[in-house]
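Data availability (excerpt). The following record was deposited with the supplementary files.
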Amino acid sequence: MVKILGKGVEKAEKNKPLPEALEKIVGFMKGDATISVTFMSKWTGLSPGEVKAHIQTLKTMDLIERVGIGRGGYWLVKPPK
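Predicted structure:
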C-alpha cells in the first residue's frame, strides 16, 4: 500500500506493497535499467500514456529517478524511505 499525502501525491512506505501496475514497472526497471516506455507498454498491456503516468507517480513517490536523457539514460530504482 501507499500512503496518500494529498493532491494525488503518494509516499511509499517501507515494507508496503505497491499497486500491481507500479510493481511491474519497477520490476522491469530493476531488470533492465535502460528499458523504454514502449517496451514496458507492450509487456504490461498498458498504453504508453498510462506507463508515463505511472512513471510520474513513481518519481513523485521518490522511488525512481531518470539519470541521463534519451537512449543514453537509465532508470535508478531507489529503496522506499
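Summary of structural features: The first helix runs from residue 20 to 31.
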